[in-house]
Design goal:
The protein is an alpha+beta fold. It is built from ten helices and six strands, in the order E-H-E-H-E-E-E-E-H-H-H-H-H-H-H-H.
Amino acid sequence: MDAKKSILTFYDIASGPPVRPFAPNPWKARYALNFTNTSYRTSWVALPDVAATRKKLGVPACRKHADGSDFSTLPILHDPTTTSHTQQEGTFVGDSFDIAIHLHNKYFSPDDGRPPLFPPSSLALHRAFNAHVDALFSLNGAPLAGYYMPLDPATAEISRADFARRAGVSRWEDLEIPPGSEERKKKVAAFEAALGSGLAPWFVRRDEGPFLEGRTPMYADLIVGGWLQMMRNCLPEWEELRGWNEGLWGRLYDALEQWAEVS
């Protein structure tokens, strides 16, 4: 296959200028692409165009809103080097966890000197861990960070109206928890406590390295890293968060920077 055609295309959400990734699930997949040293290019998609993009590519929504309607989101990965029984022009994968599995199966080799995304017999545990981390950050971190997402000014009004509608409030401004307010101080403290009790205890080899298994990274670390990237881009208290749990989250974020290239 032509080398140019063999480059994978990664669909991510376009932020305000300068364009940069900020959403947690695309970051999980981007980390995985870089971790496996896979050649790819990013196709930036305006937030209001995500549903149309999935439809155009023939990739059904993989999540649901609370009311049962489709929740169209990113990432999507197009791999032109493989073809499924339903897709004739390469394979399209539309979920961050499935993208990681695809990359592990297609691009990991024990001979290349890198650890696997998924150590042997760990797939089910990774899936459960992913759900656990998503729930923890969605409940505690996203309400504090979401209002400060770097939305593209060209489409921000549409995006904010959609977020407000989905949250059941009449105005986007109703979603803000003002910095310095007592409510915010309490929620920040609750977020710190949730990370301390619900996630920090999983890092049992802190004396050996920054990852869950100490010196050796795996996809579970990238899952946490995806959410840390959102906090880095959106949470006003990011520097404070870096120091929680004796600096655990700052060390992990820094250790993952070697796989944070944006191609």
